[in-house]
Amino acid sequence: MTSTAAGNRAVVVRGTILHYLADPGETSNPASWELFEDGALAVDNQGKVAWAGPASRLPHRLRQTARQEDHRGKLIVPGFVDTHVHASQVDIIASFGEQLLQWLERYTFPTEAKFADRAHAREVFGFFLDRLLEAGTTTASVFPTVHSVSVDAFFEQAAARNLRMLSGKVLMDRAPFAPDFLRDASIEQAERDTRELIERWHGKGRLGYSLTPRFAPTSTEAQLAMVGRLLKENPSLWLQTHLSENREEVALVAELFGVRSYLDVYDRFGLVTKKSLFAHSIYIDDTDRRKLARAGSSVAFCPTSNLFLGSGLFDLHATRETKVDVGMGTDIGAGTSYSMLQTLNEAYKVTALQGRRLPAHRGFYLATLGGAKALDLDGFIGNFAPGKEADFTVLDWYATPTLARRVKVAQTFDERLFALMTLGDERAIAATYVLGHAAYRRHS
Ligand SMILES: [Zn+2]
Q: Which residues does 26 contact at the CB level (< 8 Å), separation at least 6?
């Protein structure tokens, strides 16, 4: 039985249910999650979580009123959250041989120039969002390009799929680091365009506007000051940018702005807030981390990108120890996979190279509730607390022969979960649900 009517989203889904209430940490504190091996998740007719728990305790009224979907033998987790990704860089994934600044010049800027064409933007962003759903990702914080039409195209495609998404026009106006073909014409024009887009999209359905100065080297002081003004004027806006990704970039920022720390550039213009998300944050120190923690700002950990561009190793341990919220980011196109499972697999290796560990429970927390907290969206998504939006992902323990064999010999649930995180990818996503409806099913 199928029902796509917006008014009839009620469903009860059976399967193994896992969600998080807090960060399980490096010791996998079992008080931080709920696991129902034979579980049920009830969604109300608005697409919100009505109830989650052991199937045997499903309230009678829910049993009778909703349609049933059976995923017994599979694992159901909240939809993955990708806290840092460039929808405009779909076509430069797997481009050879450069580090950050040369990568931008050689691959990124030429490909982003094409997004002045709305039809091109719409086609690429449709492809992009379908890849996210195929990877089990239901929310993301997304960079389109400097063109207003690219923001319209992205939000249109997100709205068509009913997804909770953050995005905003990329701001860049500093020569020569922002090339002339991607440069905002003036502060006034950039501000006017941004205000129009906020008016058009911010708070429309599940969409939120994120002020998006690309990174310090591509913005003038005056442009960053304009962003700070907008943020102060409307604290419901988000902010996303990059911070301390690469050594050469950090040296450039020190030279351009004459600051002790890269973060101080953003701080100077009022951009370090509770709604701010800083991608990478590799070359920061404890002073910076404490500043981020005090402000309630967050960091996006993008391991596949950091390894691919040879940027460096993000210190997850130090960042979480100072209580900075961290989410996972694929950072396509410098990142090499849309899969949050593959992103966690690489994150594990980044922690291992620093003599630390990333247990599977912490990994799944970072990819769900941790990401939601990092984006300040945990009031809406991130776990199965009643009233939250019912975006979830169904995972197949037996998706590939290698994964199936490893899972079969595993002694504990944690061991199985770690195998899934390490060996899983898009093939392990059996279905992805948005507000209680299957938006993607593998092999259908
Ligand atoms: Zn990025």
A: 317, 356, 357, 358, 359, 362
Angle at 214 between CA 183 and CA 340, to 5 degrees: 135
Kindly give the distance from the C-alpha atom of residue 200 to the centroid of ligand 1, in angstroms, as a whole number. 25
Span from the CA of 85 to the centroid of ligand 1 (angstroms)? 6
Please answer whether residues 297 and 324 qualify as being in contact, where contact means their C-beta atoms are separated by less than 8 angstroms. yes
Instruction: Report residue 71 as tokens.
Output: 């995923």
Ligand 1 centroid vs 142 CA: distance in angstroms?
A: 9
pLDDT in tens, 250-272: 999 999 999 989 999 999 999 99
- The rounded Å distance from CA 108 to ligand 1 centre is 10
From the CA of 242, how far away is ligand 1's center (Å)? 6
Describe the crossing of helices 413-423 and 401-409 by its angle, rounded to 10 degrees. 160
Structure tokens at 276: 């701010």
pLDDT at 6 over 80: no
Q: How far apart are the C-alpha atoms of 90 and 63, rounded to whole Å? A: 43
- Taking every pair of C-alpha atoms in the chain, what is the biggest distance, in angstroms? 66
- In the chain, the amino acid numbered 84 is H
- Domains of the chain are 11-79+383-441 (2.30.40.10), 87-338 (3.20.20.140)
Question: How far is the centre of ligand 1, averaged over its atoms, from the C-alpha of 218 (Å)?
Answer: 13
| Token representation of residue 137 | 């990702």
Cα 260 to ligand 1 centroid, rounded to whole Å:
23
- Residue 169 backbone class (left: φ over 0; alpha: ψ -120 to 50; beta: rest): beta
How far, in Å, is the centroid of ligand 1 from the Cα of 86?
6
The pair of three-digit structure tokens given for residue 416, joined into one six-digit string: 């199985």
CB 98 within 8 A of CB 107: yes
Among 7-11, 197-201, 360-364, 411-415, the range scoring the smallest mean pLDDT is: 7-11
Question: Residue 339 Cα, ligand 1 centroid: separation in angstroms?
Answer: 16
Q: Cβ(21)–Cβ(32) under 8 Å?
A: yes
Between the CA of 145 and the centroid of ligand 1 the distance, in Å, is 12
State phi, psi for 191 to the nearest 5 degrees: -70, -45
